[in-house]
């Protein structure tokens, strides 16, 4: 089985995270500041260098003013659109 970091689904996740950050009107630096992390943390997430667990994803969604469930639904919609 191929590692998840190389799967199309992971690339879709990274694109959606960045899209949500941009929609929230935040730069990477502002986003990182909300999370009380260095800017490099935000960059590493968007470039796929940092793996996220569910708790971190929930914190990120909170920082982006999006509900975790809504985020997952958007993610699933993106995957269905790509597959369909």
From TrEMBL:
**PROSITE patterns according to UniProt:** HTH_CROC1 (PS50943)
- Spell out the InterPro entries in the cross-references: Cro/C1-type_HTH, Lambda_DNA-bd_dom_sf
Q: Which Pfam families match?
A: HTH_31
Domain HTH cro/C1-type, by residue range, is 17-71
CDD domains the record matches: HTH_XRE
Q: What is this protein called?
A: Helix-turn-helix transcriptional regulator
């Amino acid at each position: 089985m191929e590692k998840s970091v190389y799967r199309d689904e992971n690339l879709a996740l990274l694109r959606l995270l960045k899209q949500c950050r941009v929609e929230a009107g935040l730069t990477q630096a502002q986003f990182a500041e909300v999370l009380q992390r260095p800017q490099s943390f935000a960059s590493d997430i968007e470039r796929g260098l940092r793996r996220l667990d569910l708790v971190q994803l929930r914190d990120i969604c909170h920082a982006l003013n999006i509900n975790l469930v809504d985020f997952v639904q958007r993610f699933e919609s993106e995957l269905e659109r790509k597959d369909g």
